[in-house]
């Protein structure tokens, strides 16, 4: 019996800038869902030829700012306080952004639109670490105020697992993680050569780390946003039940990141698409949800830091 294929039509080759933008956005989204998906599986999923998928991935990863990396789940390394902060600056943003970049607990820093044009995410072991960091930021020249929301639950996030299994890591696990943090698509053959195991044993090791919630492997696209990736941050304040908002953010294909939080906002989400014509209706739909009392938004202009790999060093020191 011949195997059943999911593709009924011939592979398509997108034509024109708009088609390429849409295709690249779909490719990035697929790699965010599974950073180690094979070219073959990506081609089937996207309805394109393997050669075309490989070509677009090469262009995106060599000059397009796309990286596929592994990151440790923050809870696994003892980071139980995760926050989102918006900074008001009196003057140029870049000097303050450069200062925040240097903070080891800041994993995401972006220059944005709006009256608070610097956004960052940081992760901490406890509330005292958080307060020390916030005191430092508030003392920076030209910083006028910092608005903070503390994450209660990550609803969508490529580098936060939705459950963890008790697991003890050994030297080989750490060596694999270290390589995958640099390139999450490193072949099992290359990984096997690094740790001196067979490719099958190496594959089993990596899958064990993923299944246990220790690491997530996904695509991130740093730097200035391009035609194929427009990102808008949204802060939602509610005056009613949170269930309609939770359901919406979980089901929307345009929301890549969403958290339930307290502080400045009750929910924070990031909407990503190749076109504002897709994002604006999604934002209007959120405004119309029961319980939404206010919605703030900001456009991400330039991600100046996105580093989820640094925490491995702390783990190795403890071991």
From TrEMBL:
Residues annotated as domain HTH asnC-type: 169-220
Domain of life, source organism: Bacteria
Presence of keyword Transcription: yes
SMART domains cross-referenced by the UniProt entry: HTH_ASNC
Keywords: DNA-binding, Transcription, Transcription regulation
PROSITE patterns given in the database record: HTH_ASNC_2
Keyword flag Transcription regulation: yes
Name this polypeptide is given: Lrp/AsnC family transcriptional regulator
Organism field: Leucobacter manosquensis
């Amino acid at each position: 019996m011949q195997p059943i294929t999911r593709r009924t039509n011939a592979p398509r080759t997108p034509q024109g800038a708009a088609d390429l933008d849409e295709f690249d956005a779909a490719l990035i989204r697929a790699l965010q869902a599974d950073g180690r998906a094979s070219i073959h599986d990506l081609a089937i999923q996207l309805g394109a030829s393997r050669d075309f998928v490989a070509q677009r991935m090469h262009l995106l990863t060599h000059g397009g700012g796309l990286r596929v990396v592994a990151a440790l789940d923050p809870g696994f390394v003892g980071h139980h306080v995760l926050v989102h902060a918006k900074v008001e600056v009196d003057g140029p943003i870049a000097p303050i952004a450069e200062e925040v970049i240097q903070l080891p607990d800041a994993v995401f820093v972006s220059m944005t639109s709006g009256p608070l044009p610097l956004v960052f995410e940081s992760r901490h072991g406890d509330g005292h670490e958080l307060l020390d960091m916030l005191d430092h930021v508030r003392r920076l020249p030209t910083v006028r105020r910092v608005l903070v929301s503390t994450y209660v639950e990550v609803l969508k996030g490529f580098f936060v697992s939705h459950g963890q299994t008790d697991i003890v890591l050994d030297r080989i696990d750490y060596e694999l993680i270290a390589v995958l943090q640099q390139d999450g698509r490193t072949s099992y053959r290359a990984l096997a050569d690094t740790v001196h195991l067979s490719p099958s044993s190496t594959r089993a090791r990596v899958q064990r780390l993923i299944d246990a919630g220790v690491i997530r492997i996904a695509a991130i696209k740093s730097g200035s946003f391009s035609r194929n990736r427009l990102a808008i941050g949204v802060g939602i304040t509610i005056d009613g039940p949170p269930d309609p908002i939770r359901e919406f953010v979980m089901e929307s294909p345009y929301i890549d990141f969403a958290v339930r939080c307290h502080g400045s906002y009750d929910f924070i989400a990031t909407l990503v698409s190749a076109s504002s014509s897709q994002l604006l209706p999604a934002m209007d739909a959120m405004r119309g949800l029961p319980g939404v009392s206010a919605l703030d938004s900001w456009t991400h202009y330039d991600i100046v830091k996105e580093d989820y790999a640094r925490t491995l060093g702390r783990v190795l020191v403890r071991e």
